[in-house]
Q: What sequence folds into this?
């Protein structure tokens, strides 16, 4: 009897994998920064804070060229097949660089999350974020992105992404008719579009006014959200002045985590303090 062996899974199609899109991934949002379709809408600039970049292909790739297998686990290659650079990254005197120094890994996902027979490669920074107000260049090693038959990818080997200036993103919903009211011990949340500098570098730029009069403040970092800080009245005040309207802002020059300064003052928001207005003794220098 003649027996014929057959496979229950279809053979992978021949042909060069086509890079069809690159997406910038921020919390709760996916923004295309490059599309093969010239008519597709891409963002002119994106915020500096990103946790991943997705490189979408029209078919599955040879994952062994992107990741290594150790036992039963796949791990990223020691040298990522996508490199990241921007102006000033290697300057000897004043590099545009974060602390800890920027590093990243590249992974492969064969799941067709983008439809059809697609797969995607994702670049993940060790600490989320890229320098604001700059151009980030992503360089692909095209020989690392092939079909199962070794056919090299079809697409550019360099993609430039324009990063927007650092801005403040409200952390509380605005009220249409009146300011919200909080107790004197209230800590005001401020969120940035890029990862800001460490607290000790950020604090000199924080400003607060109570009914138009400058008052000293203290900053603390959010332990979960790396783009957020909390602003409170300096300890010597014992809290925000009761009954006052507090306006929070950051002066021009406030740096992001890579040392890139802003060029304009950034208002962060206002609120009212509970209690009746009292005479202020000025208790701080």
A:
């Amino acid at each position: 009897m003649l027996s014929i062996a057959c496979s229950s899974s279809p053979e992978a199609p021949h042909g060069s994998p086509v890079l069809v899109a690159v997406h910038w991934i921020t919390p709760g949002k996916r923004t295309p920064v490059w599309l093969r379709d010239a008519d597709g809408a891409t963002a002119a600039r994106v915020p500096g804070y990103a946790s991943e970049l997705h490189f979408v292909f029209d078919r599955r790739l040879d994952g062994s060229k992107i990741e290594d297998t150790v036992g039963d686990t796949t791990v990223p290659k020691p040298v990522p097949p996508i490199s990241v650079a921007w102006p000033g990254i290697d300057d000897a005197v004043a590099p545009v660089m974060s602390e800890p120094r920027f590093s990243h890994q590249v992974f492969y996902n064969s799941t067709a999350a983008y439809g059809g027979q697609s797969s995607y490669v994702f670049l993940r920074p060790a600490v989320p974020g890229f320098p604001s107000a700059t151009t980030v260049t992503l360089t692909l090693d095209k020989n690392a992105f092939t079909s199962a038959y070794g056919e090299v990818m079809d697409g550019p080997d360099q993609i430039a992404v324009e990063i927007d200036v650092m801005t403040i993103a409200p952390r509380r919903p605005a009220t249409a008719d009146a300011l919200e009211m909080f107790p004197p011990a209230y800590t005001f949340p401020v969120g940035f579009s890029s990862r800001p500098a460490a607290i000790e570098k950020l604090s000199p730029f924080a400003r607060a006014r109570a009914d138009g009069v400058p008052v000293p403040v203290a900053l603390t970092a959010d332990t979960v959200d790396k783009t957020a800080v909390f602003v409170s009245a300096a300890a010597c005040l014992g809290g925000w002045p009761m009954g006052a309207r507090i306006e929070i802002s950051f002066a021009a020059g406030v740096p992001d985590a890579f040392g890139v300064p802003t060029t304009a003052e950034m208002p962060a928001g206002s609120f009212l303090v509970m209690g009746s207005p009292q005479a202020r003794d000025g208790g701080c220098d």
Remarks:
- The helical segments are 199-202.
- The longest strand covers residues 19-26.
- Residues 1-9 have pLDDT under 50 and may be disordered.
